[in-house]
Design brief:
Helices cover 69% and strands 0% of the residues. The chain is mainly alpha-helical. The protein has a domain of 30 residues. 0% of the residues are buried.
């Protein structure tokens, strides 16, 4: 069979042979994850507003 490394390499080559595209995709994923995390922390701090004095999360 193929090693995991070979499979990964093939997968990358099939999906995006262009290194620039790979970098853009990685950047996009990071931005999406960051936005999602930011939204989640805003949401959870809204949920926990009554748990203690304001400013604990570094608002």
């Amino acid at each position: 069979g193929l090693t995991i490394k070979q499979i990964t390499k093939i997968g990358y080559a099939l999906r995006m042979p262009d290194p620039e595209a790979t970098a853009d995709m990685a950047r996009l994923k990071v931005r999406v994850a960051y936005d999602r995390g930011k939204r989640r922390s805003q949401f959870s701090s809204a949920l926990h507003l009554t748990d203690g004095p304001p400013g604990l999360d570094g608002a």
